[in-house]
Design goal:
The protein has 144 residues and is α+β, with helices and mostly antiparallel strands. It has a domain of 92 residues: 3-Layer(aba) Sandwich (Aminopeptidase), CATH 3.40.630. It has four helices and five strands, in the order βααβββαβα. A hairpin with an 8-residue loop joins β3 and β4. α1 crosses α2.
Length: 144
């Protein structure tokens, strides 16, 4: 029997696991860096970070943000980051995390949800589309 997955707010003790997950996404991050980042994130009330744990181990996380926009009177919800650990993939954890994020954002007044996903993440694109997300455009980046 598979152990239950618990979705809960991230806490200070999750920094090392979050650093590992962000590293798995392709953004090398140390636990100390993640500790500093999380200190800034938790101080912003528009942000939230949820973790999925199974068997006492962090299996994945999702970072979300409620924001306002120029194009609409209602706030929108943004999935800022999401990752499921290599040993936990294809077990429904990503779906649970995304559903929890959408619920949290809906409770905060968001009625539209957006996310970005790199061009090289074809599997993630299929996952998001299967959950009702539509490809609507491009994102550009520039570092001065």
């Amino acid at each position: 029997m598979t152990e239950a997955v618990e979705i809960r707010p991230a806490g200070p003790d999750d920094a090392a696991a979050l650093a590992d997950l962000v590293t798995q996404l392709g953004y090398p991050t140390s636990p100390a860096q993640m500790q500093r980042r999380m200190a800034r994130i938790v101080s912003d009330p528009d942000y939230a970070t949820l973790v999925a744990s199974q068997g006492g181990r962090v299996a994945g996380f999702v970072g979300l943000r409620r924001a306002v926009t120029y194009e609409s009177d209602e706030p929108f919800g943004e999935i800022r980051a999401m990752a499921v650990g290599a040993g936990f993939r294809r077990k429904g954890i990503g779906r649970l995390l995304l559903q929890a994020a959408e619920s949290a954002l809906f409770e905060r007044g968001a009625r539209v949800f957006v996310l970005s996903s790199g061009n090289h993440r074809a599997g993630a694109h299929l996952f998001y589309e299967a959950l009702g997300y539509a490809f609507t455009g491009r994102r550009y980046r520039k570092a001065p």
